[in-house]
Amino acid sequence: MQEAKNKLGLIFFPAFDWSISPTHPEREERLLYTKDQIEEEGIFDIAGIEEYNPEIASIQDVNRTHFCIPKTDQIVTKPHLISAGGAIKAADLVMQDEVDSAFAIIRPPGHHAFKITHGTRGFCTINNEAIMVDYIRQEYGSELKIAIVDTDAHHADGTQDIFYDDPNVLHICLHQDGHTLFPGTGFKEDLGGPTAKSYTLNLALPPNTTDQGLHYALDNLILPVLDDFNPDLVINSAGQDNHFSDPLTNMQITAQGYAQLNDKLDPDLAIMQGGYAIETALPYTNLGIILAMAGLDYSNIIEPNYSPEIKEQAPEITKEIEQQVEFLLKKWEQREELISKELAQGEYKTTTKRITYDTDRISDQQKIKKRLCSQCSGIKITQSQASPVNYGTVKTIEIPFNACKQCKKEAYQEYETTKDNDDFDYCYLQDKTADKTIQPQ
After folding, report:
1. Largest CB tally within 10 Å, which of 74, 181, 297, 363?
2. What GO biological process terms are annotated to this protein in UniProt (predicted)?
């Protein structure tokens, strides 16, 4: 019997009872061909590769990460909880040393779901991966350093939003240039909040980037930064819509390119995100990732319509990627200096952002007040006003895992002042130091 070099856990949840519409790219049969391919290749006959059932995430697991407006159970379905539970199950398998690594092949996806969520955007309602990361930190130690490498073609704007101010979570995102693809964000200048400058790194890949460009970024940016950061866990947010056959994107990555990426990255966890070529790409890219994570040979994986010309990359694309890599490496090296400059600007920093829900056609205008604290990540106070949904003015107050006493005190004072204030229709408090969320009644 063939034996895996690395013990690998697979969690599969196809969510046959959830879809946006029968013809939507994110539809019920999206993972069927992957399951068939895995079984046909005899993956479950390999010693050391085991399939596990997902758990069901709790409402508290969701509330630890998100503010769901107006209530969690009004926008989150059971398939969402099982998908998030699949990611949590993967984490438990690794953290409890039952396996060396785990791959959650799950849907619905999650990386476009923001901290404050009013509904579905980019096919995502809650952020499976972020929920898993916060679960790990709650259950296994809030001081853990975690690195997320997102390889989806679409910028992981939701994951970025959730961890933008957290220096214990390094978020590196490789994606098709936001000037050419939804959600239109994720540029190299977006480096993280004041207390976590350069702990967010965005590499906007030009359309038609090939395996060459992807692996240049991996070898010259991602792996050196990971080595410097020295995380306790590495997570691949395994979006696979960079594939050359994907109908929603304009990239040229192959199944071999994905497998080699996971071979080099050697992630502890892989959590599936996008990928919409359900017959011509996903069965092959998922198989390549599985074999790479298990330490097995993946050299014979060739998808339909592959030709060597797909790997040829235009010189101008190579040059653009090289320039971005150089810029981001410099910003990473300057991170302590950049954070010091931010903290010297005052006690609070206020910003605004507008979030568009392409699926549910909601627009959310946010005003964010961030405490610039030298002792911790600082509390964050956000006012949210969404339309056409009519929940009025919402205020959310976040207390981070590493909050100092002063920040925590100010957060509770803010909550007490706001909860009975007629200017706000809803007020929420999220205290990660106590694993406590207070929602409106």
Report:
1. 181
2. epigenetic regulation of gene expression
β pairing state of 146-150 and 233-238: parallel
Cα 407 to Cα 370: distance, rounded to the nearest angstrom: 11
Assess whether pLDDT exceeds 80 at residue 19: no
CATH number (domain holding residue 163): 3.40.800.20
pLDDT digits (tens, 9 = 90+) for 272-296: 999 988 889 999 999 999 999 999 9
Q: Are residues 296 and 177 in the same domain?
A: yes
Torsion of CA 386, 390, 392, 393, to 10 degrees: -10
Q: What predicted TM-score, i.e. pTM, was given to this entire model? A: 0.96
Contact 438, 68 (CB under 8 A): no
Domain of residue 197, residue span: 3-336
Q: How confident is the model at residue 16, as a pLDDT?
A: 61
Determine the residue type at 66. Answer: H
| Tokens encoding 36 | 């068939």
Could you tell me if 280 and 303 are in contact, meaning their C-beta atoms sit under 8 angstroms apart?
A: yes
| 304-307 LR contacts (CB < 8 Å, sep 24+) | 304/245, 304/279, 304/280, 305/244, 305/245, 305/280, 306/254, 306/255
The residue among 111, 89, 108, 93 whose CA lies nearest residue 30 is 108
Catalytic residue numbers read 112
**Does residue 82 belong to any structural domain of this protein?**
yes
Position 34 in a domain: yes
Q: Is residue 355 in some structural domain? A: yes
- Are 138 and 196 members of one domain? yes
Q: Is 341 within the bounds of a domain?
A: no
Are 132 and 280 within one domain? yes
Nearest to 265 by CA among 228, 302, 219, 297: 219
In a shared domain, residues 77 and 153: yes
